[in-house]
Specification:
Structural class: mainly alpha
CATH topology of one domain: Amino acid/polyamine transporter I
Strand order of the largest sheet: 1-2
Shape: globular
Strand content: under 5%
Largest sheet: 2 strands, antiparallel
Distance between the termini: 48 Å
Helix content: 55-70%
Number of helices: 20
CATH class of one domain: Mainly Alpha
Number of strands: 4
């Protein structure tokens, strides 16, 4: 089967899952269009804002689709081959990832748009809630640190490769990508003001502003922003600027930047996906990259469990539960909209993962492109697929690289806002003062961390956060397992249908087993640094503690009163 054939079969499986499986799960949850959602109950015009489902879907999709669904599948294919990767992406998205997102969104929506940690407090106990809240907050801070550095480096590093076959040199300047990104953010604010003042129909707004995003891609390389710092971190100035943006963006009303920027980002990503898939189908190349490279990678990691934690967000992401229960649950207009936004949003991320995987599948085993970083592999692959539709190759690759930056950018300010929400929920601080305090505390550690460096085993200077980067996928998958655990506690304590508890419980058990085994193997790794060992042991102890407390609570079946009618 050709690469296009594999892709179409996978997309067909997603379509069937959405039409059939998601409808069954939605019926089991009893979604009711007449029920008043938190967006209406607490409508404040800033954080709680009822939002049309397709407008919200674009914003939600752009928020959850960060670097993970791109980098994860690419790294997994390079390590183990594309066949096990595509199998896990499809099955994982349908039965675990999309279910996790949808359930987290509904669970939060049914409890006043509270966080997943708050569910632990309601259905377990306060000490578990405190520990889980702290873990979530640290996870958000780590995402901010890592994605700030990834984005900043994309703004100063160039892609310079020779196109196979033609011998043409392709040079994409990071400074041009930076300029396009700044124009993109400006368009988000302009769109927010336009919608607020003139209240146009959505199609009118779309026709005006979506083409302007394409114009931003074209103008960026003509107006490059060269901003390079002296010293070991050339992208440091950009990191500071991005963190400043995150702080400002997290404090603004959602209508001014979060919603319009997310909508534009979502459409931009839709175009990327549609164009990439169409170009790939028209080209219909053979899958030249090896389908299976063996059970053990070149780094000595076994396929099970490392395939799952490497692909991570491409099949299931704990971070999505934070977005669902943080910003998205505060904007759901009608309960049935949760199926489109929660389940459908994750399937769209699965398409991103499939397209990223295709960017490796079509490469020859000795291709020099395969030695590039994942963002460059994705940008080159998507750009090449788009060029099959008649788009100039240089513009197409620039478009693909900006798509990667957009995936990450849209996640950064959402992470900051989520960290602020969690801080306010934990401390009880309300109002603008509480919001400002939460934002400052959330960004303080990233502000320090982005300027720190370390030395790897080869003596190269690397960003300090990369010392524990091997734990990123594990911690993210562990967060998904613990989120599913909190949801299971809710379902059991409120006597929801047994089949629904089974549908949520089995993925929880699977994800717990995968993450715990991965943590044990990472702890046993003799090459692990002291910092990595410390973090890994902490995660292991924390997860075992929460799992033990939850198991005991489920066995005892103590009765607790829910926050509201469930």
């Amino acid at each position: 089967m050709t690469l296009a054939g594999w892709l179409l079969v996978s997309l067909g499986a997603f379509a069937v899952a959405y039409a059939v499986y998601s409808r069954i799960v939605a019926r089991l949850f009893g979604l009711n269009a007449a029920t008043k959602t938190p967006a209406h109950e607490h409508h404040d015009g800033a954080n709680f804002v009822p939002t049309p489902r397709f407008y919200l879907l674009s914003q939600h999709f752009s928020a959850i689709s960060a670097a993970g669904p791109i980098a994860g599948p690419i790294l997994a294919a390079l390590a183990f081959g594309w066949k096990p990767a595509i199998l896990w992406i499809v099955l994982g998205c349908i039965f675990i990832g999309a279910l996790h997102d949808f359930s987290a969104l509904v669970g939060s929506m049914r409890h006043g748009a509270c966080s997943v940690a708050e569910l632990m407090r309601k259905y377990l106990n306060g000490r578990t809630w405190a520990a889980f809240s702290f873990y979530i907050w640290l996870a958000l801070v780590y995402v901010i640190i890592a994605f700030t550095d990834i984005t900043a480096r994309a703004f100063v590093e160039d892609l310079d490769v020779t196109v196979p076959g033609s011998g043409e040199r392709l040079l994409i300047r990071g400074a041009g990508v930076a300029a396009s990104s700044m124009l993109y953010l400006f368009l988000g604010v302009a769109m927010g003001l336009f919608v607020k003042i003139f209240k146009p129909r959505l199609w009118t707004t779309t026709l005006i502003f979506v083409p302007l995003v394409a114009a931003a891609v074209a103008l960026g390389p003509m107006l490059p922003l060269h901003w390079v710092a002296d010293g070991p971190i050339p992208s440091l100035y950009w990191s500071y600027a991005i963190l400043l943006y995150c702080g400002v963006a997290s404090m603004l009303p959602v209508w001014l930047l979060l919603q319009p920027r997310g909508y534009l980002g979502g459409f931009f990503l839709y175009v990327t996906l549609l164009g990439g898939v169409l170009g790939l189908v028209l080209e219909n190349p053979a899958a030249e990259w090896p389908g299976y490279l063996g059970f053990t990678s070149a780094q000595g990691q076994p396929l099970v469990p490392f395939l799952f934690i490497t692909i991570a967000c491409g099949a299931c992401s704990g971070f999505h539960g934070l977005v669902c229960s943080g910003t998205t649950s505060k904007q759901i207009d009608r309960e049935p909209d949760a199926r489109v936004v929660g389940y459908g949003g994750m399937l769209l991320e699965g398409v991103v993962a499939l397209l990223a995987l295709a960017c490796v599948m079509w490469l020859a085993a000795d291709s020099p492109v395969a030695k590039q970083n994942p963002d460059k592999i994705f940008g080159y692959g998507v750009g090449t697929f788009l060029s099959r539709l008649g788009v100039p190759l240089t513009f197409a690759v620039s478009f693909g690289m900006l798509a990667f930056a957009t995936f990450v950018y849209d996640t950064l300010d959402v992470c900051t806002r989520l960290g602020r929400y969690l801080f306010q929920e934990f401390t009880g601080l309300r109002g603008r003062a509480g919001a400002l305090a939460g934002t400052v505390v959330t960004l303080a550690l990233p502000l320090v961390a982005v300027s720190q460096t370390a030395t790897d085993a080869g003596g190269r200077i690397i960003p300090a956060y990369k010392v524990i980067w091997p734990l990123f996928g594990t911690s993210n998958q562990l967060l998904a397992a613990l989120t599913l655990l909190g949801l299971l506690l809710w379902l059991v304590r409120t006597n929801k249908p047994r089949i629904l508890r089974f549908i949520v419980g089995i993925p929880m058990i699977f994800m717990s087993g995968i993450t715990l085994s991965a943590l044990v193997l990472q702890i046993k790794d003799a090459k692990a640094t002291n910092l990595l060992l410390t973090v890994a042991v902490t995660l292991l102890v924390l997860s075992l503690w929460i799992l033990a407390e939850a198991l005991l609570a489920l066995l005892i079946r103590r009765q607790t009163a829910p926050l509201r009618a469930q």
